[in-house]
Each structure stands twice: as structure tokens, then as C-alpha cells.
Amino acid sequence: MSALIVTGLICGLIFLAALKRPQWGVLAIAALVPFHGLLIIAPVALSLWKEAAVLAVAVAALLASRARDRATVAPWLAPAAVLVLFGVISTVWVLRTNAGFPIKIAFFYLLVAVIVYYHPFTRRDKDHLVTILLTTGTLSALFGLAQQVLGGERLVEMGYDWNESLRTTGPLLRSFGTFNQPFPFGLYLMLVLVVVGTVALSQPGRLRSRIFWLLSPVLVAAMLSSVVRAAFVGLIVAVFVVGVIIHRRLLIYAGILLAAVVVAIPFAVAVDQRGVLAALFSSSSLEDRGGHWAATLPRMLVRPLGDGLGTTGSAAEKVLEAFYPRTGLYQPDNQYLKVGLELGVLGLALYAVTIGMAIVVLRRVIRVVRDPLEQGVAAGVLAATAAACVAAAFSTYLEIFPMDFFFWFLLAVAASLPREEARAVGGWRRERNPERRARQERREALGEVRRGRTYVPMIRP
């Protein structure tokens, strides 16, 4: 009963904040979701508080007034809507009345992007979000490193379970921080390092940027302790993307660091008596996944419409075990294979078009915006999206909470711009001269353009 009261209190406060400004409600959820895993040892609220909070913000967004000075450039929401419709039809056709959970798992947090589309983030909102990411990432990282000191037995006494939250790789206990498993912990720290680090590079003289560089070794060490190799690879990809698109010197620093690591590896292996490095960078799990990927891929190719949403992955684990216990479950460990198996080649194409359009929009945003913070956020989100696309090749990325929340949320936030810049970015079709169009819009804002001359309308008393 107390958990229900706390859940209602949280959602009520978020709803009141969102009535004033829906952006505040979304920021509040973003600040809380990294600590959702603590409900395992302190069940003070219901597990569904996060879905209830998002719905509360959505209702408040319908009632709140909309600002007219900014816009969110998100043409990718159109193919995403088609993908949602296709997915809903497929899962209802296959699972009938049990279709609700797969739909929630696959598409629910797209609602956050829709909220941001109608209520774009301001520069100050983005600034608050970066601070939230740094703060929550640091707190979770510190708890993750503390788990290495506490050890498995002490964590069991606290209420965590083996093979659920507690997992090992060789001699290593895999940290999971304030999350329920190592996977979201490692991927979230990757996201924090990429987004906040890119903003810090764009604002080098700011106090928050200096604090980030001081804390970055803690964040990296905690990410390594999770032993989530998809996060390791994603971070490397993100650094390369940021270096190519906005900070070229980063490539030099990354190259020097990589060379130092390569030189140090033989010495580290020689003194590593416990086999920590071998466990940390073992490729055995990738080899196992490669085997079942090769065996399953032909099934995707011969079924163009797929088996139906919710027939693989965690959604199938929840639904099929409850209602069809004799049905075999398959965990693809690959987001693209999962989409292909469930929705076929058509669904995979819609998914690729959605992500591709979002990446193109972010690239245009980086070229158009001039504010260092907004440009840094856009570049960081683009790099984080590229990292997520790589990590999705080794995990069902959009089934891992809260990575699904932040994936759609950040794509919309980064594309929230002043209207003039939003017009310069444009939609899916590229304008031949966006700068000229922006100047034209400014002229039209001052008066009416007729026959090549500008007439400012007279204001009568």
C-alpha cells in the first residue's frame, strides 16, 4: 500500500511540474530512471512508476500551452509511426489479447519523443539535462565501484540475487550500479561519457566541463567493471564520430591513448595472475552468438513479414512463459536480428529508415546551430546514436531499460531548435540554400516582401 502511495505521489508531483512546463516533467523522469534498479533492495514504489510518470507528462502536455519560438525537427517520427502501426497489427494478429506487453516494450518510450516534438527543449533545458546526466552517471558509477569492494556475498545480504543482478565473468564480479543488471549500467555510462564529454569539449572553460574531466576516470573505471563489451566498442565508435564531425584534435588524443594501451597490454598480461584482462576482453560470448545468428538469419529472409512482434527477446520471455509455457524462447542478442525476425525485412527497412533519417537530421543540426552548448548536445547525441547502433549489433538495445527511454528522448532533444534554425535544418528534403532561406524568413518577420523590396507595415495607434 505504501508503494502505491509513493508511486502516486511521484506521478502527481511530476504531473504538476509538467502542467507548468512539460519539459520539467520529462527532465524529472530522466533524473529518476537511472535509479530504478534500487527498487530491488528498497521497494518504495511500484515498478510501473516510470510508465505512469510518462503518461502523466503526456496528459499534462495536452493541457499545457505550447511555446512558439522553438521547434523540434523530427521527420523520422513519420516512418516510426508506420513501424508502430505495423508492429501493433502483427502482435495483435499473433498474440491476440496478450499483445499489450510487447507493444509497451517495443514502442512505449517513443511517446517521450512525441512530447518533446510538441514541447521543444530550450537551451536551458538542454543545459539541465547535461547536468542531470553527469550527476546520475557519477552517483551510479560510485555505487558500481563500491560493489567491487562489497563483493557478491554482501550484495546478496542487501537483497540482490545471483544470475539476475549479480553476474560474473571469469574472476570478475560485474558491477551493475543503481541498475538491475550490468548491461544497462555499462551502456548508460557509455552514454554519459559520450554526451557530457562532447559538451565539455564544446565548452572547455566551464566549471562543469572541468568537473567532468576530473570524474571521467571514475566513469570509465565503472564502465569497465560492468564488463559490457558492447559499451566498450560503442565508446570507441563515439569518440571517432565526435573527432570526425566536430573536434578533430580528439582523434589525435585518441590515437595516442590507443598506442599507449597497445604498448602496455603485453606488460599488463604478464602481471595479470588472476586472468582479469583475459576475462574482460574475452571473445567467447561473441563466438557463441555468431553461431546462433548464422543459424537463425535464413529464417528472417524467408518470412518477409516476420513472426510477429513479441515472439523473441524479453517480451517473449514475459508473454510466452506466462501463457504458452511449452513454446520455445529465443534471445537473439542482436537488435537488428530481433526486428527482422519479428517484423520481417519490411519492418527492418522501416527501422533503418527511421534511424537513418534521425542521423541525417542531427548532422544538419550540427552544421546550422552556432551556440556551443546546443551544437555540443547535437554532436554528442549523434555520436551516442552511432554508438547505440553498434551496441545494438551485440544486444537487444531497445529492450534494455532505460536505454530505450534515452534513445528516443535524446534524438528529439538534440533537434529542438529556435524556429529560424529549425527552418534552416529543414525536413527530410534538403534545401538548396538553407542559409538564404533563413535570411528570407528574417526579412519576412520584419515586414512583407513584395517585388524585391521590403515594406514595413505601419502601426496605427
Automatic annotation (TrEMBL):
<feature type="transmembrane region" description="Helical">
    <location>
        <begin position="252"/>
        <end position="271"/>
    </location>
</feature>
<feature type="transmembrane region" description="Helical">
    <location>
        <begin position="378"/>
        <end position="398"/>
    </location>
</feature>
<keyword id="KW-1133">Transmembrane helix</keyword>
<feature type="domain" description="O-antigen ligase-related">
    <location>
        <begin position="219"/>
        <end position="351"/>
    </location>
</feature>
<feature type="transmembrane region" description="Helical">
    <location>
        <begin position="130"/>
        <end position="150"/>
    </location>
</feature>
<feature type="transmembrane region" description="Helical">
    <location>
        <begin position="183"/>
        <end position="201"/>
    </location>
</feature>
<keyword id="KW-0812">Transmembrane</keyword>
<keyword id="KW-0472">Membrane</keyword>
<feature type="transmembrane region" description="Helical">
    <location>
        <begin position="101"/>
        <end position="118"/>
    </location>
</feature>
<feature type="transmembrane region" description="Helical">
    <location>
        <begin position="76"/>
        <end position="95"/>
    </location>
</feature>
<feature type="transmembrane region" description="Helical">
    <location>
        <begin position="343"/>
        <end position="366"/>
    </location>
</feature>
<keyword id="KW-0436">Ligase</keyword>
<dbReference type="Pfam" id="PF04932">
    <property type="entry name" value="Wzy_C"/>
</dbReference>
<dbReference type="InterPro" id="IPR007016">
    <property type="entry name" value="O-antigen_ligase-rel_domated"/>
</dbReference>
<dbReference type="InterPro" id="IPR051533">
    <property type="entry name" value="WaaL-like"/>
</dbReference>
<protein>
    <submittedName>
        <fullName>O-antigen ligase family protein</fullName>
    </submittedName>
</protein>
<feature type="transmembrane region" description="Helical">
    <location>
        <begin position="213"/>
        <end position="246"/>
    </location>
</feature>
<dbReference type="GO" id="GO:0016874">
    <property type="term" value="F:ligase activity"/>
</dbReference>
